[in-house]
Amino acid sequence: MAKVLFILKRREDYNGIIHSQIGLSTGLYNSASFVNDMLKAYKIESNLAVVIDNNDIDREVSKYKPTHVVIEALWVTPSKFAVLEKLHPNVKVIMVGDFRQLPVVNDRIKGDYSKSLALKEICDYNQVALTKCRRSDVKLFTISQNVEAIEKSDFGSKKTYKNICFTNATRRFINNECMNRFANLKRKYIKVGGLKISEGMPIICKHTIDKYKLINNEFFTVESVDCEKVILKRDDGESIEGSHAFFLNTFELAFCITVHCSQGLSIDEAYSIWEWEKFSKKMKYTAITRARRYNDINLI
User: Fold this and answer.
1) Strand partners, 94
2) 55 vs 19, residue with greater confidence
3) Which of 2, 23, 43, 137 gives 16 a disulfide partner, CB atoms 3.0 to 4.6 angstroms apart?
4) What is the predicted pLDDT for the residue at 23?
5) Listed residue (12, 257, 273) closest to 144, CA to CA
């Protein structure tokens, strides 16, 4: 009898705690959760586990003892697959992901991830390619198939409060520009160090702090700010409060993030992409496929 285990990475680059206390990317959590529930409805044993990184996979597989493991998104390094295959040779592994996005970070194996021998072996040399996209509209999907041919004029050119760029220097510049525009629009802000912090501003955590259940690259919104403290809110409504010093040492503005940080995001509003000419092919693909609608994308 099949026994299925879905394994997701606790996302570090998307609204951290939306559907669960353990921090998941909404889209990945929803898709895995729907299938997990469907399998249970058909009396098939199934479970969903969340791990911090690929070093935790062995623990979850050993604990649940599944016959099949479904890994959502390409975040497991090929070198780790080589280890897992030896530890769990009888477990069938199903990988779900997009090879055209940015490569896996911190892997010891260099080269084309899709051609990794370890990846092929753990998936029994089976690969299924989907031909229809249900995540974005047809126009966006079509143009994403040949990102090298994209011209800036193919998209809008509006400046927005959500941005993706290449360099940290540009990220800091855009965050500062958006901060000033946002603060002037609100006409009410508190100086926190050199920052003008207003209610509603997007914030990103830059350190993982277990004590406060904070994850590196987790997103927040400023709920309130006064002369002594800043209160940030997660999308599930949970709040975290800290002094100005704690805020400055732990968080940054998130009007703009780098394209590497954006991987894994789904953006349901208008956003702007900067430094397009500096992007590699994979960066361009990653940046435009964060959108669901073609008309939401702007190239500056």
Assistant:
1) 70
2) 55
3) 23
4) 40
5) 273
Summarize pLDDT for 31-75 with one digit per residue, the tens. Answer: 788 899 999 999 999 999 988 778 899 999 999 999 999 998 777
| pLDDT grade for 142, boundaries at 50, 70 and 90 | very high
Beta strands in the chain (DSSP E): 3-9, 45-51, 68-72, 92-96, 163-165, 190-192, 195-197, 202-205, 219-225, 229-233, 239-243, 251-253, 256-258, 271-273, 297-299
Distance CA 244, CA 247 (A): 5
Domains of the chain: 3-122 (3.40.50), 134-300 (2.30.30.940)
First to last CA, the chain: 54
| C-beta of residue 253 within 8 angstroms of C-beta of residue 195 | yes
Tokens 């360099």 sit on residue? 167
Average pLDDT in the chain: 88
* CA angle at 189 for the pair 187 and 193, rounded to the nearest 5°: 145
CA distance readout (Å), 33 to 4, 36, 72, 160 = 12, 5, 11, 33
Q: What strand order describes the sheet that includes 239-243?
A: 239-243, 229-233, 219-225, 202-205, 251-253
Tokens of 1: 């009898």
pLDDT score of 101 = 87
Identify the burial level of 68 via C-beta atoms within 10 angstroms of its C-beta, where 0-12 means exposed, 13-18 middle and 19 or more buried. middle
Task: Count CA within 13 A, CB hemisphere, residue 81.
Answer: 26
pTM of the model: 0.80
The secondary structure of residue 80, as a DSSP letter, is H
Cα-only R_g, the chain? 21
